[in-house]
TrEMBL record:
It comes from the Bacteria. This is Zinc-finger domain-containing protein.
Length: 82
């Protein structure tokens, strides 16, 4: 794969946005259900889940998993309220 100027710019932007205590995908995945519950009920993300939220902005794979989880929980919630 040949990197063009845009690819390099994107990669550098990602590097600059790395947090000192960044989560990896496994650590993020372990906390997805907790974040989903917060999103469904209060909407206010506590400081303890800020790194998870940050990781989701950086990682499309984890973001897809999170969105699928939210969809499932919303469907279950709608089903239970009928």
């Amino acid at each position: 794969m040949t990197l063009n100027k845009q690819h390099i710019t994107n990669l550098l932007g990602m590097i600059r946005s790395v947090e000192p205590d960044e989560l990896d995908c496994d650590s993020c995945y372990e906390q997805l259900s907790e974040l989903a519950e917060v999103e469904l009920h209060s909407g206010r993300v506590p400081d303890t889940l800020k790194l998870v939220e940050h990781h989701l902005h950086q990682c499309p794979c984890c973001k897809d998993e999170f969105n699928a989880l939210l969809e499932s929980l919303n469907a279950l919630q709608a089903e239970n309220s009928d």
